[in-house]
Design brief:
It comes from Paraburkholderia megapolitana. Helix content is 11%, strand content 39%. The chain is mainly beta. It has a single domain, classed as Pnp Oxidase, Chain A (Roll).
């Protein structure tokens, strides 16, 4: 299936994570690359756009990110959940996860990291050096963001195809698909006392 990746305005990039989905992190340095799932990520700031992700100090992904200073953050769809579980359940030490799980990639726009076909959004991030890394937190400035136009256009999600919904990881191989959208009218402002 032909996927059209459309750039997302960087001032709106953090909207891609606002609903709390599981993410997949890609990294590369010195001829090695790796991919891992990360359930703990969130938007941090708008201008410039920043995200936070937790990456354990014992992982190959962590080593590669610390060496390169960059990483890719992608949102997998329901149709990519099996691969998400696989890359999150296996170590990259001694295993080429891209080959083992037949993951198709394409090059990043602004960073030298493989990005995953099969996801619905992609963010390319540069690490902002910070003392929080000793707590396994990485702050990344989003330098490029793009999304599958079948699910994200005009700064809005639209999940018409159930297989293209983002997902949320719980534990033990259990995921939840992002649910139905609904809107409410804002409450009137309360009178100031």
């Amino acid at each position: 299936m032909d996927v059209t990746r459309k750039n997302v305005d960087l001032s709106r990039a953090t909207r891609l994570l606002n609903h709390g989905p599981v993410t997949v992190i890609t990294s590369a340095h010195g001829g090695r690359s790796n991919v891992m799932a990360a359930a703990w990520s969130m938007p941090l700031d708008f201008d410039p756009p920043k995200i936070v992700v937790v990456i354990d100090s014992r992982t190959l992904t962590r080593q590669l990110i610390e060496a390169s200073g960059v990483f890719g953050l992608q949102l997998p769809s329901v149709g990519f959940a099996r691969q998400t579980l696989a890359v999150g359940s296996n170590t990259g030490e001694g295993l080429d996860k891209f080959a083992a799980f037949e993951l198709e990639t394409f090059p990043g726009q602004k960073i030298d990291v493989p990005m995953l076909v099969g996801c619905v959004t992609w963010m390319e991030c540069k690490v902002i050096p910070d003392a929080s890394q000793r707590h396994d937190l990485f702050i990344g400035e989003v330098v490029a963001a793009y999304a599958d136009s079948r699910v994200y256009t005009d700064n809005r999600w639209h999940f018409d195809d159930p297989d293209l919904r983002t997902c949320h990881y719980v534990a033990g191989g259990t995921f939840f698909a992002t649910g139905e959208a609904f809107e409410v009218e804002p409450a009137p402002r309360a009178a100031q006392a």
